[in-house]
Amino acid sequence: xxxxILSVVLICCSAARAEVVTKSIDYTHGGVQLQGYLxxxxxxxxxxxxxxxxxxxxxxxxxxxxxARQLAELxxxxxxxxxxxxxxxxxxxEEAAKMSNAFKGKPIIRERAKAGYDMLAKxxxxxxxxxxxxxxxxxxxxxxxxxxxxxxxxGVVSFHGGLVAPKSGDKFKAKILALHGADxxxxxxxxxxxxxxxxxxxGTDWQLVVYGDAVHTFxxxxxxxxxxxxxxxxxxxxxxxxxxxxxxxxxxxxxx
Length: 256
What we know:
Layout: H1 2-17, E1 20-29, E2 32-41, E3 48-54, H2 62-73, E4 77-80, H3 93-101, H4 107-122, E5 126-136, H5 138-148, E6 155-159, E7 175-181, H6 189-202, E8 206-211, H7 235-252
Parallel strand pairs: 3-4, 3-5, 5-6, 6-7, 7-8
Antiparallel strand pairs: 1-2, 2-4
Helix pairs in contact: 4-5
């Protein structure tokens, strides 16, 4: 009995020491100094799936870093990449729009995202055969663009992102999960139609999940609750979309 009690105590103490480890990682792309955010659970031994996280149009801030920590708690190695530059955060919506528009529809959005992917793939704890990417708003658009490059991703998840369709000639292997607000005014119906057509034509495994009563930015509490602005938090859509991501990862990571 004493041995059993001692064993339980040792297990509990070991679990108590487990924690999510985080660190900043400096890297460059195109002569721009970037700084990403890595998170993982140090109690897990050996290699594990990696998840790339792409921030909203504001830049790499605490919201994206927090999502990286949540992913680490699920057992993944998460890397929140930096699209804009070290410590570059938009001060208002006008500046955020200007910075994100410098990437949208241009080759650099794929190239800069690939630089972040490469940093994640280099981490010794990452199983390079099991890498996925998630993104929010601008980041949702970005992970779709990254998938369309043919990057070695098993899946991507777009949370309230712009639903960009693949271009002619794009070849990709990633499975796609797009999580979309039914009342998002920033994604026209025509864009949704083009996305669906592009997915069908690609022959890939894809899902489009639409959340009723949800607008843009439905996963971020800081978006407030005024739907008339086009961006607002929706707790139900936030909870359901995170669960959808976890189920999706269970599939693409082969049971993880």
